[in-house]
Amino acid sequence: MVKILFFLVNIIYITKCSLRNNKEEPKNIPSTDIYIDDKKVLILDIQYEEKAKYYVTALGIGTPTTYFPVQIDTAIVKSWVPSLDCEHCLSLFKYNSSNSNTSKTSLSIEKVYDMNGNIEGRVTYDNLFLANTNLKNFKFIQVLKFFSNFSDYEDGKIGLGYCNDCSFDLVTHLRNEGIINKKMFTIKEINSTNGKIIFGDIPKEIKLKNFPIFNISIIPNINDYEEIFKEAWIIKLGFIIIGTNYTNRSIEKVFKEAIQIDSYASFDISSEYIDAPYSQLKNFKNYLFDEYLNKICIETEKNNITTFICNNFKFKENPKKYKINNLGISFLFDGYSYDIPIKNLFTEINSTSSEFVIRFKRFSQNTWIIGYPFMHLFTMVFDKENDLIGIIGNSYNMTSIYKNYQYYRLLKVLIIIGIICGIILLLIIILLINKCIRKNSNNIEKLSLVENEMKPSEQ
After folding, report:
1. 42 falls within a domain
2. Structure confidence at residue 256 (pLDDT)
3. Is omega for the bond preceding 341 within 30 degrees of 0, making it cis?
4. I need a labelling partner for 97 at 20 to 30 A (CA). Which of 36, 89, 150, 389 fits?
5. Are residues 12 and 114 part of one domain?
6. Phi then psi for 456, rounded to 5 degrees?
7. Domain boundary among 203, 229, 253
8. Distance between CA atoms of 132 and 44, rounded to whole angstroms?
């Protein structure tokens, strides 16, 4: 009876998504067919939950199969679902290992460290049904306990993070079973309610384009880092640039309103915000809020998180008055900038107010968390075989400008050093001249004394 009800709920949910999809216009990434050269791929349909701002999909576990509406998470590796034995679990979907003929439950207990709280559960092996494909003996966690700090999605997650323990890794398992050829996946938004994850390759229409590829950064002293970053896809973040019109500005002007980061950024599509280290708050206030948003936004702080709440009427009705009609923020990764337009920088709370999507949190490390507000604007490629990330979308090649700026900065430093050295040299010359003058004056005095002493003797 429960399975029949769940099946009906799924039919209603899919129908609702289809109706919403027909009513809304596609945004950012056009809705196109996906063509794959290699047949060994797995294409998973995902749906976007607008209110919560994350992607979910249907995940089947066990024999017979029980389905779970799980969240897509690129910051963890261990996939999990709530157990029937879970303490204080609010989820309506719970895994019962005794009802599955293919379940193998171990006595091993594992923890999952997440940005929004930690969980603990029992290591389990069972058949996984994903995108019409049956994956045998998949390793996951059936959750027994949510810790008190947990404030996240409770129905389950598929972990697509950067694997340290690859025994839990879904992509590695798909590759080992011969379902896909390559240990990689692409997340592509199709329209405002639907997307796809392509396991095993890059879509053909993307592969034909030249797009930047970034090396995964290995953080120094990773063992000293917070647990939430240990399974994240991380690359170097150089600058954040305020404004988007680069072509008509000089090098100095482009970087005049740029915030130098020179740190790390992790990608977490399950996060509804972009979380910045608290140390960057002062820079953002100086370059962005004091200049553009101080008349329409107010600063608020709750649970050690600082954010900005803005007035919808001022923001939407008269953007030119507040100089924000052409405002944007660009993230500069290795010389390539990726723009977030002004309309995507705010998430609506209600009819009167919106929240700025960049929050400032008190991390112990200086690492950014790049969440849904950035990632859904681009097609993201995650390559586990070569430790690479590709970001495809509205970008601008600033490698030459960035190099010129680096040369410009180096030149400025050399000029300053040259001026300082010149001043020091001048001071040394002045001191030597004074020393010579004093020496000469002393010699003259001595000569005059000798002359004065000789005059009486001559007389």
Report:
1. yes
2. 66
3. no
4. 150
5. yes
6. -60, -40
7. 203
8. 9
